[in-house]
């Protein structure tokens, strides 16, 4: 690996397990990594050169830390909530930042993001007006089911599906508790195709790196539908380019995005696309791992280089990127756990000798507890597998194999795994055998 930044110091904000690979890439580049977060036990701290317990939203504390360590760059890890602080810290230190305050103002809060998107023809989920006073006249207009969510949190945190008025107040209280700004939104609960639209930006050029279909669990009624995986490319890819991509690019250009990576999460229903979330940073579900395996460039290296130099390097995205994945088929496969203590994990060793498995990002180990408050958000993820295959049929075979092979048991010998998604339905195999 290129070690031109040997000895440079990089401050990374946030220490969750999803940030670990970013720290490891920087370490392999010879960079002295410094991870700062509020929790002393965070996973990314264990692989960093140094770590501090300064909260990732404590801007004065982070600025003081950066000056004390004489860092050469700052980068946010895998946490939406830290992007506004990242922008302010970089600004105070006059260091490169792929975000600007204008961009942060749009993306940091779901309600502002939604209103901005509508101006460009990027539609959001139909919404009902309701505030913390919960006036009866507003409640009477709601048609159930609806999703209650905080405006400034993600990964399922603070989100609840509500089926009647009786469930409304506790859901609102939960959303407010998870919101720093004490704001929430009430949206129609969508029960249709879920999608991810993942973009790479370099020097003002916007590339749709991948458009894919996501599948979520329905085993946890009333909670946010946590992802079970995704298949690439999306069955709706061509229609997305025809109907939505151009509008999204106009939005990105007008708010000033020039560098970085961005995820749009959306739904497809009856010929229309509805965007429901965004993340202007590396994603926890890590589509960049599939992009690296297929295209050869690593978005993590690009962001690290930008943090230290203000440039993502010499890569020509027009040549390097391909939304159609150069004819390959790819997937992420998430294994979700029920509440309890993990006593035994089987089947993951099989991935080590499989050329189709390009990575396995494991969050939990034998002996770990899956806490009640983790159910309904991404903390209940045991691991994510990343697969790249030459055909749709081969991908289906691999997905089914690992769904059957991986087992997780609690101390009483009970299975802790939720069911996976329907592979045949996801890949439309009944109409496309042999592809």
Secondary structure topology:
Elements lengths: L8 E5 L6 H9 L3 E5 L13 E3 L6 H11 L3 E4 L6 H11 L7 H7 L2 H10 L7 E2 L7 H4 L6 E5 L9 E3 L5 H10 L6 E5 L4 E10 L2 E12 L10 E6 L4 H19 L4 E10 L2 E8 L7 H9 L3 H11 L7 H4 L8 E8 L3 E2 L2 E3 L10 E6 L6 E2 L10 E9 L2 H14 L1 E3 L13 H4 L9
Parallel strand pairs: 1-2, 1-4, 2-3
Antiparallel strand pairs: 5-8, 6-7, 6-8, 9-10, 9-12, 10-11, 11-14, 12-13, 14-19, 15-18, 16-20, 17-19
Helix pairs in contact: 2-3
Write up what this structure looks like.
- This protein is α+β, with helices and mostly antiparallel strands and 435 residues long.
- Helix content is 28%, strand content 26%.
- It has 13 helices and 20 strands.
- The chain has helices at 20-28, 59-69, 83-93, 101-107, 110-119, 136-139, 168-177, 237-255, 287-295, 299-309, 317-320, 392-405, 423-426; strands spanning 9-13, 32-36, 50-52, 73-76, 127-128, 146-150, 160-162, 184-188, 193-202, 205-216, 227-232, 260-269, 272-279, 329-336, 340-341, 344-346, 357-362, 369-370, 381-389, 407-409.
- A hairpin with a 2-residue loop joins β9 and β10.
- α2 (59-69) packs across α3 (83-93).
- The longest helix has 19 residues, at 237-255.
- It is globular, with a radius of gyration of 21 Å.
- The mean pLDDT is 93.
Please estimate the helix content: 25-40%
What composes the largest sheet? 8 strands, antiparallel
Poorly predicted ranges (pLDDT <50, ≥5 residues)? Answer: none
Mean pLDDT: 93
Give the amount of beta strand, in percent: 25-35%
**What is the rounded distance between the termini?**
36 Å
| Strand segment count | 20
Radius of gyration: 21 Å
Query: What is the 3D shape?
Result: globular
């Amino acid at each position: 690996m290129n070690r031109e930044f040997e000895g440079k110091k990089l401050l990374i904000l946030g220490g969750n397990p999803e940030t670990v690979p970013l720290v490891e890439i920087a370490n392999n580049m010879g960079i002295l990594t410094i991870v700062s977060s509020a929790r002393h036990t965070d996973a990314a701290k264990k692989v960093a050169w140094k770590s501090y317990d300064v909260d990732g939203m404590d801007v004065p504390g982070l600025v003081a830390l950066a000056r004390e360590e004489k860092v050469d760059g700052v980068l946010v890890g895998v946490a939406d909530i830290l992007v506004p602080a990242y922008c302010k810290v970089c600004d105070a230190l006059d260091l490169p930042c792929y975000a600007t305050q204008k961009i942060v103002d749009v993306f940091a809060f779901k309600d502002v993001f939604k209103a901005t998107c509508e101006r460009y023809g990027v539609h959001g989920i139909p919404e009902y007006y309701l505030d913390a006073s919960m006036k009866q006249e507003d409640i009477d207009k709601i048609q159930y089911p609806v999703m209650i969510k905080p405006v400034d949190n993600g990964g399922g945190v603070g989100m609840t599906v509500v089926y009647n008025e009786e469930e409304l107040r506790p859901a609102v209280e939960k959303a407010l508790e998870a919101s720093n700004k004490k704001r929430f939104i009430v949206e129609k609960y969508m029960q249709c195709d879920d999608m991810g639209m993942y973009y790479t930006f370099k020097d003002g050029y916007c590339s749709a790196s991948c458009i894919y279909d996501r599948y979520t669990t329905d085993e946890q009624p009333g909670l946010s539908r946590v992802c079970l995986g995704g298949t690439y490319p999306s069955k709706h890819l061509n229609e997305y380019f025809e109907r939505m991509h151009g509008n999204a690019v106009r939005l990105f250009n007008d708010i000033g995005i020039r560098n970085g990576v961005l995820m749009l999460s959306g739904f497809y229903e009856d010929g229309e696309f509805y965007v429901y979330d965004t993340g202007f940073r590396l994603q926890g579900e890590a589509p960049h791992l599939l992009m690296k395996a297929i295209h050869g460039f690593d978005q993590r290296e690009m962001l690290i280089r930008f943090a230290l130099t203000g440039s993502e390097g010499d890569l020509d995205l027009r040549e390097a990127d391909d939304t159609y994945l150069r004819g390959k088929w790819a997937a992420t496969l998430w294994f979700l756990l029920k509440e309890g203590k993990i006593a035994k994990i089987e089947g993951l060793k099989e991935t080590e000798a499989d050329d189709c498995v390009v990575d396995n990002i494991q969050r939990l180990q034998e002996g770990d507890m899956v806490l009640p408050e983790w159910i309904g958000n991404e903390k209940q993820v045991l691991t994510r597998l990343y697969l790249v295959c030459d055909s749709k049929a081969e991908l289906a075979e691999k997905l089914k194999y690992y769904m059957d092979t991986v087992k997780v048991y609690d101390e009483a010998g009970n299975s802790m795994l939720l069911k996976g998604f329907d592979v045949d339905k996801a890949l439309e195999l009944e109409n496309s055998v042999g592809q």
